[in-house]
Amino acid sequence: MIDDGGIPWLTDPQREFLAHLLVVTLLPQMQEAHPDQGYTYQRLAEALGDIAGDGLMELRADDDNVHVLICGRPMVHAVRDWLEYMTPRWQASASN
User: Fold this and answer.
1) Whole-prediction pTM value?
2) How far is CA 7 from CA 23, 36, 42, 57, 68, in A?
């Protein structure tokens, strides 16, 4: 869902984890703002995929941080060390 645009050291699993973090960050907000719309994890993930496909989502990173932006607005921030530490744990928990 999230294209890294050439960000060094960002792995496919890390991009997938960032996409997951984006959905779980936005889902409660969408459900609260639009309770009658029936937002689910899958539905929001698909909508965010469309947004990314339209080129409205980007990743910005430096040696220490990664930010997911939609239409230029920051939505998710992760420190690289934390992202590197948590990604395999997230993958392991998802496989259970």
Assistant:
1) 0.86
2) 21, 38, 26, 14, 12
